[in-house]
Design a protein that fits this description.
Layout: E1 8-9, H1 16-32, H2 44-51, H3 55-82, H4 85-104, H5 109-126, H6 130-137, H7 144-172, H8 176-201, E2 204-205, H9 218-226, H10 228-246, H11 250-258, H12 262-275, H13 277-291, H14 294-314, H15 322-341, H16 346-349, H17 357-368, H18 375-386, H19 390-433
Length: 434
């Protein structure tokens, strides 16, 4: 396999075993690569104690990363068309591993801002386009959808296994600083290994470099902005992602309001973040196919999130309710992940034209992931200033976001039906002329 890494190959030149290996490699890599940035989703309290920061500071670190990421989403697509997947993969992995080792040293908050900003470039500008492009390069056109489905399953399984190991480390080491440092060093080593394997085993693919690509097009971007389907799909994704990220605050909610032990909180966080991904993504996709509408599936899932979030507001903060709350957290994690996993499908339902589809996808990423730039700092400040009362405020905000996402998804559906009717009319008129 190593010998062929320097020759241009087609997917048919690769053995089935090598294609499976590369699929698993890039899927595990995409799961583990973002673990350091989003470590607070599972180990919120130990991480805050280890860094010695406030809730707002913890959110601000992620906001700094997110601002860089938002800037890099559109050019990342151009980079993916201009640079080989093999190069993007190993460079992105190894540079992120280096930053994670630096993170593991638990430097000052000022230095951590530099680390998170650096990761914005290494994980987004360099690595963002790698996963989907590599899966496409090792698949036929017909097998690509099923390969992506398998990729998501490997992604969830890898995150769950690594997360359980991390939980065991945090539970075994009494000192929060020591445990988080060990966890980050462990993750950095895994990322480094995947980077080395990428360098050794990902081949140069025939036709992967788009030499005729013109790069960023302002004209296509303006066309995408003017398309109502793109606008409503992006707005829907914004609120879907806000809810998906907002429910991560159920982690400190369990600790602060129900005195849940760290081990239980970490396990519930892992299941919510990774475990349910094994089921929620396929379930949401299956429901969308059954209803013949991703927007309808999203609306059903958002209604379910409204119900669970409302339940958090009325449940008494009593230790006896801990297991019931844990079950509800898994449910809201399931429906929010399900919405997120099919969020980009709304572009297809909205009948976005193919010439601007790529640009529309980039805009969807920019607008859709925008909540990361402010949500965590905002919610962290609420907790700092209002203590346990902040969680009801957070859940009310998430209820509003869910309702707004519901309305936007309905608008996507409405626009899609209008666009389909217009296309049918144009086809009928064309047939009459002929």
């Amino acid at each position: 396999m190593i010998r062929k890494a320097h020759a241009e190959l087609k997917y048919t030149d690769l053995s089935k075993g090598r294609r499976i290996f590369l699929l698993c490699l890039v899927s595990m890599g995409s799961s583990i690569l973002y673990t350091p940035v989003y470590l607070k989703s599972v180990f919120y309290d130990p991480l805050m104690e280890a860094i010695g920061c406030t809730n707002a500071d913890l959110g601000a670190l992620l906001a700094a990363y997110s601002i860089v990421a938002i800037i890099c989403y559109l050019p990342a697509g151009v980079v993916a068309d201009k640079v080989r997947v093999r190069t993007l993969s190993w460079v992105g992995m190894i540079t992120t591993a280096g930053l994670t080792y630096w993170y593991a040293m638990l430097p000052s908050l000022e230095v951590l801002y530099a680390v998170f900003i650096g990761m914005g470039f290494t994980t987004i500008l360099i690595w963002w386009g790698t996963r989907y492009k590599l899966v496409r390069l090792i698949s036929s056109e017909d097998s690509y959808p099923s390969q992506i489905g398998i990729s998501y399953s490997v992604y969830g399984a890898a995150g769950l296994v690594v997360g359980l190991i991390n939980t065991a480390i945090v539970s075994a080491i009494a000192s929060a600083a020591q445990s988080i440092s060990v966890v980050l060093a462990f993750i950095a080593t895994l990322i480094l290994i995947i980077g080395i394997l990428s360098f050794l085993f990902i081949p140069k693919f025939e036709g992967e470099i788009q030499k005729e690509s013109k790069g960023f097009s302002l004209r296509e971007t303006l066309k995408a902005f003017k398309n109502p389907g793109v606008i409503w799909a992006a707005i829907a994704m914004f609120f879907i992602y806000a809810v998906y990220q907002g429910v991560t605050y159920t982690t400190p909610f369990m600790t602060a309001c129900f005195a849940a032990p760290i081990a239980l909180v970490s396990i519930v966080g892992l299941i919510r973040t990774y475990g349910i991904g094994l089921l929620a993504g396929p379930a949401a996709g299956g429901l969308a196919r059954l209803l013949k509408s991703p927007s309808k599936a999203i609306m059903i899932f958002l209604i379910a999130s409204l119900v669970v979030l409302a339940a958090f507001l009325v449940l008494p903060h009593d230790a006896a309710m801990l297991m019931a709350v844990a079950a509800l957290i898994v449910v809201v994690g399931f429906v929010s992940y399900g919405c997120f996993s099919i969020g980009s499908s709304t572009l297809t339902e909205a009948k976005v034209p193919l010439p601007i589809f790529g640009t529309a996808t980039g805009l969807l990423s920019v607008v859709g992931f925008l909540p990361d730039a402010f949500l965590h700092t905002w919610f962290g400040s609420l907790i700092d200033n209002h203590g346990n009362d902040a969680f009801n405020m957070i859940f009310i905000v998430l209820i509003i976001f869910s309702a707004a996402g519901l309305a936007a998804a309905w608008m996507v559906r409405r626009h899609g039906l209008k666009a389909q009717a217009r296309m049918t009319l144009e086809t009928n008129e064309s047939e009459k002329i002929q």
